[in-house]
């Protein structure tokens, strides 16, 4: 291994010296740009309360399902990694033990973006100089713990250290937005933005649905006894989000279906759901209908519509029962866009001011469906490679598969979708490097001039995410 | 930007110097070969009438849906780009205004093949030396307009200038072939060939179907009152195409289904269609049945069968109503070949003299379905990457995905499918460069010897398209 | 061409000199490792009888459907290549004639792995120094024939010459295992292992099913008159395989469905099958049910479960009738894993000691389904690229698509699936070169350190296949 552990300045740039030289020039144009992080899962409380991150295990291991799933696949268990459970297995409470298990499994992350992000964070943010392993675990733990304990190592300070110009959180549709109001009062109103996420309210056959409806009614201060009440309450909450600075809504449906129902049928299904007699097929049709309604509301209130479809959640029964959602058992499925988005795009695809950003974890649709759609409908932008595809080679494949049909101007630019706060600088930096490499190849192949490539790199890193998420009028 | 604007001799060759050096040698073997353009959409009238191309907007912008769709996706409208409409919006009639809008949007084409082709045509054919932009639009307009106005800048002269040995047009099945006869009289009979395109006749539930049947009946001089009449008339028109020099038929169905019906059922559906009572499911079954019949007729008359499935046409309702088809709203869908082609290949896949060429806009099927099928059935050849996939990186992916299973001998070689006449040299040149790069890599990796690679490059550019579209016996 | 014909020491390594230099270092760590060949189709009789391979046509051409399909696609016929038939066409019996036809078609293999493997075998094993062609066919024939006739050129001796540490055969579930016992007696018990392949027994609507059941009953020495008998007999035969050294079962279903039936329904379908009244839908449901049962039995006896789904067998009717299965007419179809494997993984995916290895010929599922599944379920390993995908560029794509989500530790390492014995060294060597190239790129891009890359290369070539196929307890 390199001795001591360092980050090479050319990491993730193409190996070919010609292309690398060009890529270096392009990367120089974006390296120091502020971070625009328009979608993610960092809890708003962190910024509102601005409290300490706890210990290395709480910061890096326990909440990161990218990381825990890999260790589970190699024989670890979630409780031994500190993940709380309703199960009988004892949950590890010693953060140092958890950290040791993580470091002992370091080799399993080879070739993954988790490895790349962690390496970046440990070296850049924490100054670690030795590769994690069973042998080095304790020393690294102490080093990371000491940094975390520093008074300046707080969420708000890190916004500056990480050069984050703006960051969006993801919030329940019925959220009080109290934390965002506190942030606004403290001068962070333009810097930490809420995002309206109504998924559980749109899936009328979920066990939690009626509880969610009650929460919505309370938040909107409007009884929800009918479909029309429901639309009214949703509209009211969207408006509250707009007032709190939101730029976007976010939708994580299984399919991308957007076929609207007529009002009579929508009311009928809603009433059946209230009565507890809704069928799975009705619920599925209703969720597609509601995506259409969300788009319609976006044309009213200007919220950008983010669609993240195609993931079958909680694939394994027992881990879901024991540990809850978001523990690594979410697996993509084939996702269709051409026919599914047709009703929505036919209705709103040329609407001025409406923006829909489509993400996918199904690479097949890049060249076949999403790039052709984004390449003609003014309202549609192609999101950045998402989740499992937010990785160096996958990002390169995205550029190669989508650009020739959609161009760059129909894309969202980089969007990070991060849960692990300390990985944000690594992710943005990596995306900038991959884009520099891709653009560098276009220049090396004389398909683009260098000045165009550098300008495009700045678009992808900074200007396009700003343009894709405009402030509502 | 490079100053002045020029085409680099190594453009679209691999960046790595080792591979580029080899690729240059391979490309030298194909660079000056004549163009064999066996499929496309250049109107036959252009060659028959040999008249002027009008103005820069008419030549480059208005008829090119690759180009207009990108500008539409960025907020332009088709009427402002000169595209005629039944809509109320005023259609721009000043070609210079249209040209300015195109040049102002030049940046949106970065990374697309449209950019690559346009750059090639503007520099090579028109001698343009500055990059298009709002600032340079007028000067480029004047330069292009002057060249278009030259007496020698006529379709037939360009066949020589572009080194086009043979070009096929695409013609309605009921076409009179008058233009092709005139071309034959003028000595262009072996150089401009018709192609038999019966799609609207095979989809019995389209609004226009009965009009099409009437046109067929008139062209074939045979009343079409029954399924048997219909087959007779189709057969007669195919024969007329063969006599006019046609090499192939072309089929643009939504699915690749080729399951035959029995005669009783085929007759029943046909009669229902005449009576206006056919269902969508019946029409779909009938269209698959007719692909099977088209293959059967090909075994009789020797016309090569081209299949271009998998595109959902006219995705947006309002633009279709206002502007008609082929305006950029055609979006690919998942396409299945293994089961769909089975009836046809089972019946005719080993028939001597039958050739089917399968194209796709669904990259997923290259390695999974089409290459395995083409790698065993003597009748099947794998067409070149089509439409959205006729692009540098997509062509490279095609070679990488299909060659290992199908080899080179089971491919059609390059087929351009062009509507924009001036892009033909650019497209063939680009394909030769990409193939040189791919073959150069095989040589650099010692998987092929240089003499084999050069011979294969000539196959792909010239011999295979000739062999794939033989003259009917 | 290179003169004389030789194998370049850097073949199949990346062209870029920087990456090639690193890849050479990594390849040096695996080049001389023994071969662990845990799945394949070399007949066990060859090793049991240790007899001569006959002639060059019998060794290289007649049994290799990769090779014959390509020649058929170019107009040869199977009988002219010596493939026996029930058809009227005369079967070529002169091996020299067959060999000439193969050599005359050598150019059609350009760019295919068959070409790469054959070149490796002809040069390395047979010392051939000229490229095959119509002109060189006879001389090469004589050279190969002479080597085959050498007393030392026998299967067991070649195990040493090829450095094969262990090789698995594939055996019918009702096999007597006589040959394996003879091998054990001769000291080859740990070197040539059987594999339990029950496919024809699990598809209850196949014409041969009742014959297969009779063979199972005889082998297990247990009457099979009911579903419970059937499970008992299967269990007994699995145990016999374990005792004969088997490590794994192998399953070649069309779909990956693993949904279990309840016992009543399973018994009912089984009885219907015995009575000859089973429907296609029942048979399909039963085959999925039996995959679940096979997994359950694996948790009892420790046999690793290999799943090879997604191939539609015998696509063309006439060749199947005339020549039987495995003649090149097996074509992949879309294959779904996320929902299909859910019942099995939900039940056994965390079972200690259970291992399932999933292979695919549908590249789309790498990043979308198989890597996410293998990246969390401890029981699941991702198999090596299979069949059409066991090729240089396809192997590279597999690494690039799967590693970022699954890492290396969740993979089987290289598994060759070979029918053509002499290609085994070529295949393993090629896989090691491709992995060295991929890992070399990660090092060149500073995403991995060189020591980690070399260790990982050894994992993929040697340690992981051993670990993925542990001896049952």
Automatic annotation (TrEMBL), chains A, B, C:
Keywords from the named record: Isomerase
Organism of derivation: Isoptericola halotolerans
Similarity field: Belongs to the metallo-dependent hydrolases superfamily. Uronate isomerase family.
Top-tier EC class: isomerase
This protein's name: Uronate isomerase
Catalytic activity: D-glucuronate = D-fructuronate
PANTHER family: URONATE ISOMERASE
Protein EC: 5.3.1.12
Coiled-coil spans in chain: none
Pfam families according to UniProt: UxaC
Keyword hit for Isomerase: yes
Pathway noted in the entry: Carbohydrate metabolism; pentose and glucuronate interconversion
Gene Ontology MF: a single term: isomerase activity
Entry superkingdom: Bacteria
Keyword field contains DNA damage: no
């Amino acid at each position: 291994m390199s001795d001591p552990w360092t980050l090479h300045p050319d990491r993730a740039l193409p190996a070919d010296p010609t292309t690398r030289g060009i890529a270096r020039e392009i990367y120089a144009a974006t390296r120091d740009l502020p971070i625009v992080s328009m979608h993610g899962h960092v809890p708003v409380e962190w910024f509102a309360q601005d409290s300490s991150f706890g210990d290395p295990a709480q910061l890096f291991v326990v909440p990161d399902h990218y990381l825990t799933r890999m260790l589970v696949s190699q024989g670890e268990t979630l409780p031994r990694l500190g993940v709380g459970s309703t199960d009988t297995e004892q949950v590890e409470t010693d953060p140092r033990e958890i950290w040791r298990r993580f470091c002992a499994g370091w080799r399993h992350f080879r070739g993954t973006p988790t490895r790349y992000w962690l390496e970046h964070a440990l070296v850049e943010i924490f100054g670690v100089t030795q590769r994690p392993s069973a042998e080095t675990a304790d020393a690294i733990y102490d080093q990371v713990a000491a940094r975390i304990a520093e008074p300046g190592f707080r969420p708000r300070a890190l916004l500056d250290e990480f050069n984050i110009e703006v960051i969006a959180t993801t919030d329940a549709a019925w959220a009080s937005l109290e934390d965002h109001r506190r942030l606004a009062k403290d001068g962070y109103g333009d810097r930490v933005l809420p995002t309206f996420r109504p998924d559980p309210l749109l899936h009328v056959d979920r066990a939690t649905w009626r509880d969610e409806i009650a929460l919505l009614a309370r938040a909107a201060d409007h009884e929800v006894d009918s479909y029309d009440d429901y639309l009214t309450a949703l509209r009211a909450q969207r408006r509250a989000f707009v007032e709190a600075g939101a730029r976007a809504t976010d939708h994580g449906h299984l399919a991308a279906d957007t076929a609207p129902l007529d009002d009579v049928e929508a009311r009928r299904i809603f009433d059946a759901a209230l009565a507890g007699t809704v069928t799975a097929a009705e619920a599925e049709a209703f969720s597609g209908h509601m995506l259409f309604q969300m788009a319609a509301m976006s044309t009213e209130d200007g919220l950008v519509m983010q669609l993240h479809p195609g993931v079958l959640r909680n694939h394994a029964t027992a881990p879901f029962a024991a540990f809850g959602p978001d523990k690594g058992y979410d697996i993509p499925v084939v996702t269709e866009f051409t026919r599914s988005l047709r009703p929505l795009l036919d209705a709103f695809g040329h609407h001025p001011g409406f923006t829909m950003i489509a993400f996918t974890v199904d690479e097949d649709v890049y060249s076949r469906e999403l790039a052709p759609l984004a390449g003609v409908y003014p309202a549609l932008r192609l999101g950045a490679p998402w989740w499992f595809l937010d990785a160096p080679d996958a990002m390169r494949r995205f550029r190669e598969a989508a650009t020739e049909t959609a161009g760059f101007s129909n894309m969202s630019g980089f969007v990070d979708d991060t849960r692990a706060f300390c990985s944000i600088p690594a992710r943005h930096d990596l995306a900038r490097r991959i884009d520099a490499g891709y653009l560098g190849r276009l220049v090396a192949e004389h398909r683009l001039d260098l000045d165009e490539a550098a300008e495009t790199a700045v678009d992808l890193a900074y200007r396009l995410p700003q343009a894709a998420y405009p402030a509502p009028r």
